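Quality-control log, excerpt.
Job 1 of 2 completed; input and output follow.
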Amino acid sequence: MAAPQANSEERAWPQAASARSDPADAGGEHAARGGPTLRPPPARPWNRLRPVEAAALGALVLVVGAVTVTRLPVGICYGDSGGLQLAAATLGITHPPGYPGYATLGFLVSRLPFADPAYAISLACWLTGLAALVLCALTQIRLGVNAWFAAAVCVGLTAYSRVWTGLLRPEVYMPSLAFVAGAVYLLMRHAARGRWRDLAWGAFLWGLALANRIPVVLTLPFIVLGYAVACRKSARSRRECYRGFALAVAAAALPGVYSLAYLYLRDTPTTAYNYIEQYNEEMGILPPTTDGFAAKVHRVVWQASGRQFQTMLARDWRVVRAKLRWIANEVFPVAGFTMYPLLLVVVLAAALAFQRSAPAACWLLGMAVGSMAFVAWYRIHGEAADLLPALYALGVGAGLALSPVFPRACSPRRQVVAALLLALTAGATVMHLPRRPARGLEVDAAGFLARVDLPTLPPGTIICSNWANATPLWYAQRFLTPRPDVSVINATESNWFGMVADKLDRPVFAISDYAVWEGYRWEPYRNLWRPVPIPSGPEPAPPSGGDAP
């Protein structure tokens, strides 16, 4: 049988090496001097992608984009998703840490004329999800995985409920993953090429993710370790490494400085959506902004540090251990399956990653360990338990573990097999669509707002709401139906009465009948409830002319 034909990059290597001298490429430098080449050319993983590899990435975007774009929410959403949309549309501040960078980028997107601002922000978050999957495939390709197989792995990742949800909901988790993944990819390119531009932009993206997602700080030790390993392998001088480190620190600090300045300037009572102000209206634990510079700094620190949620951090090892078991079930949820085969795959992938790019292995390990450490420490089991970075690293590891079977430069026959695997994965995804939850449509508040019918509510209405329903109501009165006379109170049910007790001369409604108000009962009104006073006085006597019941 004839040997597989060498790819065009390998056939043209001696001429290409003589035309592009690369100080890190000893074989190419030797050929450029005219000496004989006594060994195979070194791998050049950062050359331009081949057309067939670009086609594989295009197929990945086409498959995932086609099955998700029609499932995006069409407008404003409930809860945290709606909070991000509202903060971006108004250049405001949402729940801690406020997400100033995301709100700023979202504000620019929301100014586009072709769509409702909330839907434009949903599209932007969806695009960052697609970008994260493309970066996952690109990272595999640069580490020696066949492009078609890497794309198949990324399509397979959407089978995870968290990846699927992240693609469909306008949340902070997919943008955070895209920024960290982009930072790792650029740092890998800097380690291979030595370009300061890649280092600066990679550090900036990491800093942008950190300024908006505090748990990203847990990857910092691995980022520094990977940079140190890259400096050692490239044999750069100590001064040059220190200079690059200073550049990276400055670039990473810029988003944090911007975020603090944003919170300071936008934390005012006149900001259209200011979570700090409305939270303090209920709790009263923060000084007002009128108390001067020290008061505003105190409010900014409270917001940026996420102090509101610090009570959710576990302080008992038993809680952490139980959470680790939960993480294992989330990562590989197969009943009766032991973790040993998975650990074998992880060890094999780690060994190949360190062999091919030790800095990249450090950075990917940091994504996985940082994500799992935070989730194990945080006493939340829902969507806020952000395992996306760990799943991203697992996807890269799965591609690496099977890269000996599907290497980047392989025979045409294996290329076809890998492309067929992508087609099969895409087909399985399409067939499974009817059984997948409509995560984006589940949080779409359009139906809720239609039933409230905000335009026809009485003048001066007060609506008592919880966090989940308050954000769509605020959005509706600012963008859909201007009703500045309507007041929306976001508070827990137990605090509703205290916040409206002196305003009961106005029409008051609530989004549920869970609260107990002494002297009042709840009557349904559309999909709201209104408090009705219970008549006082003696109970009416039973009617005469018959036995009392």
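Job 2 of 2 completed; input and output follow.
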Amino acid sequence: MRLTLTELKKKIATVIPKNIDYEVDLEAGSISIITKTPKSFVDGAENLTVKIAKLVKRKIVVRPHPSILVDEKQVHEKVSQIIPPEAEVRKIWLDPALSEVILECDNPTAAVGPKGAHILELRDNIGWLVNVVRAPSIESRTQHDIRRYRKEMGDERKALMRKFGTRIYRQKRSGEPWVRITALGSYREVGRAMHLITTNESKVLVDVGAKPTTNKNEIQPFFSAPELMPLDNLDAIVITHAHVDHIAMLPVLFRYGYRGPVYCTPPTRDLMTLLQIDYIKVSAAEGNEPPYSKADIQECIKHVIDINWGEKTDIAPDIKMTMENAGHILGSSSVYMNVGEGKNEHRILFSGDIKYEKSWLFDAATVRYPKVDTLIIESTYGGPQDLQPTREAASHELQELIMDVIGRGGKIFCPVFAVGRSQEVMIAIDELFKSGKVSPCTVWLDGMISEATAIHSSHPKFLNRDLRKKMLKGGTENPFHSKWFKQVESRDQRESILLDPSPCIVLATSGMMTGGPIVEYFKHWAPEPSNTLCFVGYQASGTLGSRLRDGHSTVPLVDKGQTLMIEVNCSLRKIDGFSGHSDRKQLMDYVAALNPTPRKIICHHGDAHTCNAFRQGLREKFRVQTYAPANLETLRLL
């Protein structure tokens, strides 16, 4: 049953003892209990927080009253006094919006102490909530900047979260419930993902991406669709993961006045920021006017609400959401929405981009959901002929290629996405070099790969257990620390690598060769027969990568305003198994694992032929309603 804030306060008052002072506030979808005695709610045999959460069926957070918080200088003093030196505290971060102190430690166990003794003592001395995390093996500049900015904007963020909550807990509107989805991008195409869920009470967007294409008219999703306007009517935006085709156009909405919440996982927040900043740089470097500024990205950061996998939260008056692992890239999520309640409840699952197989980095996509009425599923490799080798087979193929090319003194250059594929390829190379089967050579990382890898190091709990263990052990166990991986630090260094005759491997962005440093390596090395261009990721139609993959022996390349014709004499190899997308068989297995089978399945994120072929295959196998709508079409779900 849906409750207003007044009704929630009355219910909460029935279980809190009269002698405890507290206030009830809103923190986006969560109910915040603000008190001068936080331990009254969380300590002892009877946890009041749990009791309240069960009563009101909402997420409850307990925050200390501002009057009991010591200043930052005292926080640092108390940490040095209470936390033992063997904890090796590296950094102390304050998040005023959540009244939380984050301690980055090399030894979190020592920081916490027996039965949490050190943390409890610290909390009682400083008033702030204390969160202990393991210090990352590689420091991320992006995460550092986000934390600093969030600290500076603490008061504003707190006010924003209250505003978001007030909107969620507004009065119920009259009328019969209904649910619709409008296709605003990525339907019968790959790129510019954007979906609009509209109900009789709310509007929620899922993803706001860009399309990798040379056609300027197709880069942005359909912002001009009347269903989307005005932006003030949007209740929330949900981001499934941080690839450019899902996040690059999000700051455009902030540029034009959106001021609501953005829900995503913490790794998605960090990677999204990194890639959006890079999108501005790449646009400017190509002589195009960037669609937004860094200020728009900062405004977006201010509005982000972090959601961890498995946390159920209200995002609109009639929509609850849970994010779960999608297995695609770091922090990538499938989005499960409960729309409405009772007999009118409709459960929607956005698969996001999924990998239904354990990889070097992640566990397979989650399929455990209570019930799915409508599934919106990606179709990138949904065609009948789209079958990929296993991760093990792909790794073996790459390793064989490296032994062959490096053994004869050639160079391998791979266009890679900075996030996901880069790290998987690095692990496969690291395994080969450590095996002793080939003499190691330098592996140059050009573009944002090192920073993206640092963000992976900052979020170990979003990695699979095997890799998490290796990273936490550190040293030579951590594959990303191996001595053969070197970052290209400058244009001059890149020039020296291009002229160096020694064998090497280069992993460089962008993944579809639409720009970025990979184009420089291609321009210089493609004419040489001893070199090999190796594709390990999806190449969308219309990109330079797709033309090369299709076998063009000469391709045009715009360089400093001039069009060069590049002869492609190097070898070309395509290794499919590294893709972060499931193939046809895995996609079918994913749908089969959902129990019960969804009643409606909507296919998107594939070219027109593939989406339609996948839709037909799903209908034949599962005997359910299937759709492959075009952009700007609307389907009624309830």
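Post-run check on job 2. Residues 90 and 104 are 6 Å apart (CA to CA).
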